[in-house]
Amino acid sequence: MYIESVQLKNFRNYDSLELTFDKGTNIFYGNNAQGKTNILESLYLCGTTKSHRGSKDKEIVKFGEEEAHIRMMVNRNQINYKIDMHLRKNKAKGVAINGLPIKKASELFGVVNMVFFSPEDLNIIKNGPGERRRFLDMELCQLDKIYLKDLASYNHIVNQRNKLLKDMYVQPGLKGTLDIWDMQMVEYGRRIIEKRKRFVEELNEIIQNIHFNLTGGTENLRVIYEPSCPGQELEKTVSENRERDMRMKITSAGPHRDDLCMEVNGIDIRRYGSQGQQRTAALSLKLSEIYIVKRTIKDTPVLLLDDVLSELDSSRQTYLLDSIHDIQTMITCTGLDDFISHRFHINKIFQVVNGS
Ligand code: ATP
Ligand code: MG
């Protein structure tokens, strides 16, 4: 699939903008703070309903304006789709495909699939477990509508349970209702754990090869799923933890506390890896993601690369650029030197200057 064009109105620092893209590599270059990332954000937001940087709608609407619009034209299997997004400062956003409003974000995933890659992704190994869970969830949610629903339910249940644990402190009579939340938490939690486990198995089949090649055959990378408690033990653990949860007023175990371990040649690189090792493993993770999305949707996703090239050394740049030649790619950068030195083929170049 590929994005044919985008139109923006009052989006971040853009009054009004219309861009037509190439099916291959599109480069957006310009100085800092000109609006390069904003363009990628508009595409990702319109394709997933979420900002890659977690921004709220009211932050996205141009300063001094009340609403913003994005229109994106997408081509998938020779069929054209028009996606309209309407963002308002204090109301929920509206999304329509070919003029028909949609109720759930997941309806977009049959039309658009995107992979966003930013410099922060290179810190995923070094950062806390929350980032690694987010990686798992972002992937699974795009690929599996049931997972997306289960995860939303699970998060809601844990929030409600935590609220109850706090309320119970002043109203001990509420204790009876805890059973219902525990039961539901176990039901949804087990499903999430099972899917994460399968996803990591699939990931390992792919990442080992990529990482081996990326490191010139010197590193064996293995991803290990570390559930905070295995699915079959969730019920027992939740019930055993109950007294402690009541004391601490928080749900201590469950998929919301899961992690991913990354091992290079048998060593846990979250703790013992060098910075370069951690970043290379993160790159392998991202390249595997592209591969898995491709395989699952039986089509190519659009790749959004925000300022990543400048963060990589020359051999990793080459590897990345070589891996993406068959995908529509939107790349932001401050200069074109990296492309020139790699003799990398560019299809279209946009210079971004102060919101135009
Ligand atoms: P860099 O190279 O530093 O990453 P960039 O070109 O990617 O820069 P963007 O992140 O796209 O820059 O931001 C461009 C400008 O948009 C910033 O100067 C920012 O202040 C401005 N901006 C952000 N949100 C809004 C908004 N809601 N309304 C108007 N301008 C905004
Ligand atoms: Mg930027």
UniProtKB/TrEMBL annotation:
Pfam families documented for this protein: SMC_N (PF02463)
Places the protein is found: Cytoplasm
Binding positions for ATP per the UniProt entry: 30-37
Keywords, sorted A to Z: ATP-binding, Cytoplasm, DNA damage, DNA repair, DNA replication, DNA-binding, Nucleotide-binding, SOS response
UniProt main location, coarse: cytoplasm
Keyword Oxidoreductase: no
Alphabetical list of InterPro entries matching this protein: DNA-binding_RecF (IPR001238), DNA-binding_RecF_CS (IPR018078), P-loop_NTPase (IPR027417), RecF/RecN/SMC_N (IPR003395), RecF_2 (IPR042174)
Domain RecF/RecN/SMC N-terminal: residue ranges: 2-328
NCBIfam families named in the record: recf
Function field: The RecF protein is involved in DNA metabolism; it is required for DNA replication and normal SOS inducibility. RecF binds preferentially to single-stranded, linear DNA. It also seems to bind ATP.
Family that this chain belongs to: Belongs to the RecF family.
Designated name of the protein: DNA replication and repair protein RecF
Gene: recF
